[in-house]
Design a protein that fits this description.
The complex is a heterodimer. By secondary structure, chain A is of the alpha/beta class. Chain A folds into four domains: about 5-35, no CATH class; about 110-185 and about 380-565, Rossmann fold (3-Layer(aba) Sandwich), CATH 3.40.50; about 200-375, Dimethylsulfoxide Reductase, domain 2, CATH 3.40.228.10; about 615-740, Barwin-like endoglucanases. Helix content of chain A is about 35%, strand content about 20%. In chain A, the strands form seven sheets. Chain A has a seven-stranded mixed sheet, covered by helices on one side. In chain A, a hairpin with a 2-residue loop joins β2 (about 65-70) and β3. Chain B is mainly α. Chain B has helices at about 1-15, 20, 25-35, 40-65, 75-80, 105-110, 120-130, 150-155, 165, 190, 210-220, 230-240; strands at about 65, 180. A two-stranded antiparallel ribbon of chain B has the order 1-2. The longest helix of chain B is centred in the first third of the chain and has 26 residues, at about 40-65. Chain B starts with a helix and ends in a 25-residue tail after the last helix. Classes of the chains: A alpha/beta, B mainly alpha. At the A-B interface, α1 and α2 of A face α4 of B.
């Protein structure tokens, strides 16, 4: 039987009818729809047991309590810890994105040793044993040659057991060179030392202040402990607390303040002096406090009255003299006014004269160590370890001057001057630095004048990074000994700078270490044991865990359980006990140096004729600007007017742009005396004419594809400007020009 | 006109009879075969039956692969040993979520060491317990995570028996073969053993219609007066899908999504 066309067709039709009457098409439709849900890129949350771990976020120095939600063994969400004295349930963008730093691709998975030239990215995996013995051998050699002082440590912080272990290691080993990364805390500490004679941390009772004068501080842009500041800011809005923001650019903080007063950049101290002038002239100051608790007021008063009349201040700052008078009156008439300084996120110090001027303004209204005022908070000292018994080598090493010049004759009272290290190393004026250890810091990205820092690093023969991520400094190291990330390790976290309440937090492992990393505390202990002798004796602990547990002692149980310990009784220093100066009073003029709060312009680099514009940085809570780079979630939130593709936008006033013939979105070359970069133009009414601004936190060359190569690192365009009084880098900007491409 | 001309040319050729006369015997047969009637229906029936056989018998055989569980498990024996029935091992966690298949943690109390001579138990202890590895059980009732499903709401809230959906697995002495759908990766138990979707018991299938069966019944009991015609229900649902939250309260009935229609259950 031959099958013809009709026969075939009827077979097909019969087949179609049969198929329709069979479950095949319906089942296949159903299955294919379920199949689409099985595509590997479709995120399907794993089912499992939910648990919560209380810990502390250490991605910045904010010290927020976090509660991490886990499904079985996987951390799935970071939330702010409810009831925590700092953040009470709040969390910032970086903290929320923290899981990407745990599970993301930028982790360093095992100890790495450089192969090939430095910075070229050639690495070989080595064992922990080999890594530690290499370090021990290097350090042992240097020590046997009496060069222990040529070893340096750079740390993001100097508080808590980890930095204290670094310090202890260096002391027992014989080097004075422990350096902390710069921040406005340096200025405040020095100010408190100069004016109150105390070695203390600045504390701000924001929660009880009723008038805030912010001299460029990015209250909601990352200044201080960020979540605490968000909460304080919200509370002020609800309580109608006046917040006056003084800065040349309409930042987010300025936009949310009661009043934004634009000011010529770098002249904030002049305004403070002008306010003091009005307050003194109109007898608005706290006479009781000035008479009973201060010294040197009359001399300072003369300086203020002679030089800072509203008119002369108006000429410097560009702020109308009437506004200055009104501002001074409202500041002085508020019951608990509070002035703060530290531009942007506070990662750069301000000049000593500037910071003391702000403190003097607070003192003028008697708002020192009082409710709603500025406090000198002595650090809760829960770390009491046995005395170090130094051998002769250590003692000899410790006799050397610090490489950064802190504590030297010139900068006697400064504690750390990390900013000066590159210059000292490059000039070779002092002894050479033979080995540098970096932990919780990324100086090759965060220090001003990146080129000079890179040059200095090139001169250091042995650089060891403890970074958990392949950041810029790790990229240029010889050896990487990766630390556990914050969700994998124990660490005590003292109260953040600015808080008046004594709080200790405990970061603890939320998940098991994901890779072959090791706690930096354990590595230090191993290093000490490896060196043997008195260095090993200074570390009587088997592990960092036992060291921490022993140190925290009675607090351990509470900390493990709750994640923090806070004394409900606030410290309440009496005014009598607040001043540890020779006079026992608040000193307007430092008796040792004769230094007085006043306006001395910090002149920035660049010739005005060659570089007609002034470039300033700005900070945003969406851009992490510390040793941690923005995780993918965070970088996604950066607006199109800040970063588009690989281009960062430079903000410019439309007037300035018009006169230069520039338009929105135009690609231009931004040139400063320190470097140049291709950027795009963003016209912004909120920036003063003649000034241009770039965000900080971009332009990474390290980290992952989400972050690297996007925008420009501001620090490559700016140089350092050393404060003659403190040695701190007080550069607030640099002269610049834009040229069309 | 050309058409007419063409016809006028064809007609004489046909009527001439020359062509017909020239046909061979085979061609005659072919012509008869192709004519209306029997043989064509035969092909139709052939096609029909062939596809029915493919659809009902061959297709299910091809669709599912047969997989064995990593080790066998005797439910009946364990149920007799424990006090709290199914919930002894398939328990609710403190937060009310359902734990599903037990983990080593639950087994380890009894099975830290080999207790008998059963080869599966020996394998379990040696391969999994002592090595700390979880048993990769193939879960018959695993479904895509598309709906907000709460075991607690059904077992604790509605007082249902496990059997209602999972059948009498608790009485089985060994684990049946796991038939994995090659397209979806899920077990055959979801669609049901019957490829046609027919069921006798509530536990024969676990598709959306099977949820709906029970939910519709109870819905009717709860809202006796509110029975809607199918058209009315369809229109209402469409409105809710297109414009969620357009009800008077502005919120749908779903606790999770605060929306209506599909989104009451679906994520």
């Amino acid at each position: 039987m031959k099958i013809g066309r009709r026969g075939f067709l009827s077979f097909v039709i019969g087949g179609a009818a049969g198929t329709a009457l069979s479950p095949l098409p319906w089942k296949l439709t159903d299955d294919s729809s379920i199949w689409t849900q099985m595509w590997p890129w479709t995120p399907v949350p794993k089912d499992g047991e939910t648990s919560y771990v209380n810990s502390v976020c250490t991605l910045c120095s904010g010290g927020c309590g976090i509660t991490v939600r886990k499904i079985d063994e996987r951390a799935v969400k970071i939330e702010g810890m409810k009831g925590h004295p700092i953040n009470n349930g709040g969390a910032c963008l970086l903290g929320l994105s923290g899981l990407q730093l745990l599970y993301g691709p930028t982790r360093i998975k095992s100890p790495l040793k450089r192969t090939g030239k430095r910075g070229q990215g050639g690495w070989e995996k080595i064992s922990w044993k080999a890594a530690v013995s290499e370090v021990v051998e290097k350090l042992g050699n240097l020590r046997s040659k009496s060069q222990s002082h040529t070893v340096g440590f750079v740390s993001g912080s100097d508080r808590g057991t980890i930095p204290r272990l670094f310090e202890r290691f260096l002391t027992a080993y014989g080097s004075p060179n422990l350096m902390r990364m710069p921040s406005v805390r340096d200025s405040y500490e020095l100010t408190l030392h100069m004016m109150q004679g105390v070695q203390a941390l600045p504390g701000f009772d924001f929660e009880n202040a009723d008038f805030i004068l912010s001299l460029g501080s990015g209250i909601i842009d990352g200044w201080g402990s960020p979540v605490r500041m968000f909460r304080a800011n919200s509370a002020w809005q609800n309580a109608n607390v006046k917040v006056i923001q003084i800065e040349p650019r309409l930042s987010n903080t300025a936009a949310k303040s009661s009043k934004w007063i634009p000011i010529n950049p770098g002249t904030e101290t002049a305004l403070v002096m002008g306010l003091a002038h009005v307050i003194i002239k109109e007898y608005l100051y706290d006479t009781g406090f000035i008479l009973n608790y201060t010294n040197g007021f009359e001399d300072w008063k003369r300086l203020v009255m002679d030089n800072y009349s509203p008119d002369s201040v108006a000429a410097i700052t560009g702020i109308d003299s009437g506004t200055i008078v009104v501002l001074a009156r409202s500041f002085a008439n508020a019951s608990r006014p509070l002035a703060i300084c530290g531009r942007g996120d506070g990662s750069s110090p301000v000049s000593l004269k500037g910071c003391t001027a702000v403190h003097a303004l607070n003192a003028l209204v008697g708002n020192v160590n009082k409710k709603g005022g500025v406090w000198a908070v002595s650090d809760t000292d829960y770390i009491s370890w046995p005395e170090i018994e130094m051998d002769s080598k250590a003692a000899a090493g410790m006799q050397h001057e610090r490489l950064d010049g802190a504590g030297s004759k010139k900068y006697l009272f400064s504690r750390y001057l990390m900013n000066r290290l590159p210059e000292t190393v490059n000039s070779g004026a002092q002894y050479p630095l033979q080995a540098l250890f970096v932990s919780g810091a990324n100086p090759l990205y965060t220090l001003h004048d990146t080129k000079s820092t890179e040059k200095a690093f090139d001169k250091i023969p042995f650089v060891v990074s403890f970074s958990s991520y392949m950041d810029e400094t790790a990229q240029n190291a010889d050896l990487i000994l990766p630390n556990h990330v914050f969700l994998e390790r124990y660490e005590d976290v003292p109260a953040p700078v600015g808080l008046i309440q004594p709080v200790i937090g405990l970061a603890k492992p939320v998940v098991e270490p994901q890779f072959n990393t090791r706690h930096v505390g354990d590595v230090i202990i191993r290093m000490a044991k490896g060196l043997g002798g008195s260095v090993a004796d200074a570390f009587p602990w088997d592990s960092y865990y036992s060291c921490l547990k022993e140190t925290l002692n009675d607090n351990w149980e509470t900390l493990v359980d709750k994640g923090f310990r806070s004394d409900t009784e606030l410290m309440n220093p009496t005014l009598e006990s607040s001043f540890d100066t020779v006079s026992g009073k608040f000193e307007f003029i430092n008796p040792d140096t004769g230094s007085m709060p006043q306006f001395k312009p910090v002149s920035i680099e660049g010739d005005e004729k060659l570089y007609p514009l002034v470039l300033i940085p700005y900070d945003s809570i969406r851009l992490a600007n510390s040793y941690i780079g923005d995780p993918p979630f965070a970088i996604k939130t950066v607006e199109d007017t800040v970063l588009k593709g690989k281009y960062v936008f430079v903000e410019i006033n439309p007037k300035t742009a018009r006169s230069a013939g520039l338009h929105e979105g135009q690609r231009v070359l931004l040139i400063t005396p320190k470097g140049k970069a291709e950027v795009k133009i963003h016209l912004f009414e909120g920036i003063m004419p003649g000034i241009i601004a770039l965000p900080r936190g971009l332009g990474h060359t390290a980290f992952d594809d989400y972050l690297a190569g996007k925008g420009i690192n501001f620090n490559t365009l700016i140089g350092t400007v050393e404060d003659p009084d403190s040695g701190m880098d007080t550069a607030w900007g640099i002269r610049a020009k834009l040229s069309k491409v | 006109m050309s058409t007419l001309d063409d016809h006028s040319k064809e007609i004489p050729e046909d009527t001439a009879g020359g062509a017909t006369a020239a046909q061979s015997p085979e061609e005659k047969i072919k012509k008869q075969d192709n004519g209306p009637g029997g043989p064509i229906i035969l092909f139709f029936i052939l096609g029909l039956f062939a596809s029915l056989i493919v659809g009902w018998i061959i297709f299910p055989k091809l669709l599912y692969s047969q997989k064995k569980q990593p080790i066998d498990f005797n439910h009946a024996f364990h149920v007799a040993e424990v006090e709290n029935g199914c919930e002894s091992c398939h328990f609710f966690r403190k937060d009310g979520t359902f734990s599903g298949a037990p983990k080593l943690e639950q087994c380890i109390d009894c099975h830290e060491e080999i207790q008998g001579v059963d080869p599966d138990e020996i394998k379990f202890v040696e391969e999994y317990v002592s090595k700390g590895r979880e048993v990769p059980w193939l879960i018959y009732s695993k479904q895509p995570d598309c709906v907000f499903f709460s075991h607690a709401a059904h077992i604790k809230g509605a007082d249902m028996e496990c059997v209602a959906c999972h059948g009498h697995i608790g009485e089985s002495e060994s684990l049946k073969v796991y038939e994995e759908n090659r397209i979806t990766g899920y077990s055959r138990d979801i669609w049901g053993k019957s490829i046609g979707g027919f069921k006798k018991n509530t536990w024969d299938r676990m598709k959306m219609d099977d949820c709906a069966d029970c939910h519709q019944k109870n819905y009717a009991i709860i809202e006796k007066t509110g029975v809607k015609t199918p058209t009315k229900r369809f229109v209402d649902h469409m409105i809710e899908v297109v414009s969620p939250g357009s009800s008077i309260s502005g919120k749908g009935t779903s606790v999770q999504t605060e929306r209506d229609a599909c989104f009451v259950c679906h994520k």
